[in-house]
Amino acid sequence: MSEQVHNRLAMVRAERKVSRQKLAEAVGAHYQTIGYIERGQYNPSLDLALKIAKFFGLPVEALFSLEPFRPLTDEIYGRNRP
Q1: What's the pTM value of the predicted model, to 2 decimals?
Q2: What is the mean pLDDT of residues 31-54?
Q3: In 1-71, which ranges are continuous DSSP H helix?
Q4: What tens digit of pLDDT does each residue of 52-64 get?
Q5: pLDDT recorded at residue 3
Q6: Is 16 in contact with 23 (CB distance < 8 Å)?
Q7: Is 48 strand, coil or helix?
Q8: Among candidates 1, 51, 57, which has minimal Cα distance to 26?
């Protein structure tokens, strides 16, 4: 069984106001595949992960990771605040 690939795809897509359908068409995938990736039900191939990163103009490691992502508030402001 393969390891889960964590992602920030839904967040980036929402931030950029890109629909699943538009992203899927741009990278040559089915829109349902994008949803499966976002929910962690499907690990993208390296080819697909690179195409998605290129579409958004981001490094692939900004979107996909083998380790869970830290909350953005931690990354921007430091440790969790009470």
Answers
A1: 0.84
A2: 97
A3: 9-15, 20-27, 31-38, 46-56, 60-63
A4: 999 999 999 999 9
A5: 85
A6: no
A7: helix
A8: 51
Distance CA 2, CA 16 (A): 30
Instruction: Provide the 3-class DSSP secondary structure of residue 65.
Output: strand
Q: How many CA atoms lie within 13 A of 11 on its CB side?
A: 9
Return the biggest CA–CA distance within the chain.
Answer: 44
Question: Residue 32 in 3-state DSSP?
Answer: helix
Residue 45 CB contacts under 8 Å (≥ 6 apart), including other chains: none
The whole-number pLDDT of residue 11 equals 94
Q: At what angle do helices 31-38 and 20-27 cross, to 10 degrees?
A: 110
Q: Give the closest residue to 12 by CA, choosing from 79, 72, 75.
A: 72
